[in-house]
Amino acid sequence: MSESVYKFDARLASASTPPSGWYTDARILEREQRSVFGRTWQLVGRTAQVAGAGQYFTAMVGDEPVVVVRGADERLRAFSNVCRHRAGPVATGAGQCRGAFKCGYHGWSYALDGRLVGTPEFEGVEGWSKEANGLPEFGVETWGALVFVNAERDCAPLAATLADIPERIARVFKSDPSEMRLAARKDWYIDCNWKVYVDNYLEGYHIPIVHPSLNREIDYAQYQTETHRFYSIQHSPIKEVAGARLRRGDASSTDEPEAQFYWVFPNLMLNVYPDNYSTNLIVPLGAERTLTVFEWYFRDADDPEAQAERVRRTVEFSDEIQLEDIRICEAVQRGLRSRTYTAGRYSVKRENGVHHFHGLLAKHLDHHDAFSE
């Protein structure tokens, strides 16, 4: 795999990007599933999906099947969604569990706290016990309306990853983001490696060329990228222009309205505007196939009709930007297969966020414990 060897250079001015093989080789994705997605906090759902006892939903954390459930004791738990017998699914979809999960293969059942409680026609097996074969439990935490799971039970808390993001976003809305409600969702399938999409998100360098409408509404000259331990933020003032589709927020506010684009390692984006935010989860489906999941959150409004129009316009503008990103990301993926291209260099002024991502990625793939430093 020599074409995929990469030594990260911490000096932005002298660093090169990962080689093209990192974006095309299925063996790299296998390593990422284990060492990146399997070791980080992953957004899996919403607290509204597990508000009451017995409510559950299923998800994937990297290549690990997971079920998240609210127990009879009101505690939120996350378990492996793999039966201990022959690896069948313990739960499917989402809904209300009336007492125990029942595997869809041979009918083994598990209580909401993960205990194995039913093993039909399994008498006579030696050297085995129900007590030792409950569902493996994973780390689960919430922030606002969002539920996160970490496939490593003994992991650092979610707060170590999010750092001051909750406080920064709360300042934008002047309230707890948990007061925002899901307003819309869209799934997009893209023919590119997940990192191509993340790289693209992490720099505003392409905005004047790829996103002319967005460029008209933000102040590109003042566009900045800040990197932090496990996240980065890009932010820019929102200009006051005729026919603007980005709202500048409450006219009585003394704060300069900003567009804020957060990225949380490895694959979560938070797009924050004065009146709404959206999550964008990047899910690898293959070495050159990616799912991006958008969900938009708004405050409840006194005028539902006006609110519906605001949501419609917000999603419409986001779709326009997303289609532009899809076109360029798919073109880049094709370019990465060219015999003329191996790796590139970074703009010192504009691509520090991309460089930051590549450093975290290289550290995880080298099996270093990034959380112990």
Note down, in words, how this protein is organized:
The protein is an alpha+beta fold and 373 residues long. The strands form three sheets. A seven-stranded antiparallel β-sheet has the order 1-10-9-4-3-2-5, with no helix packed on it. A seven-stranded antiparallel β-sheet has the order 11-17-16-15-14-13-12, with helices on both faces. Strand 9 and strand 10 form a beta hairpin.
> Structural class of the secondary structure composition?
alpha+beta
Radius of gyration: 22 Å
Mean pLDDT: 93
Helices and strands, in N-to-C order?
HEEEEEEEEEEHHEHHHEEEEEEHH
Give the strand tally. 17
**Unreliable residue runs:** 368-373
Strand content: 25-35%
Question: Percent range for helical residues?
Answer: 10-25%
- Major sheet: order of its strands? 1-10-9-4-3-2-5
**Number of helices, where a helix is a run of at least 4 consecutive DSSP H or I residues:** 8
- Shape, per Cα inertia axes: globular
Distance between the termini: 29 Å
Main β-sheet description: 7 strands, antiparallel
What is the oligomer described by this structure? single chain
Properties at a glance:
alpha+beta; globular; 28% strand; 373 residues; 17 strands
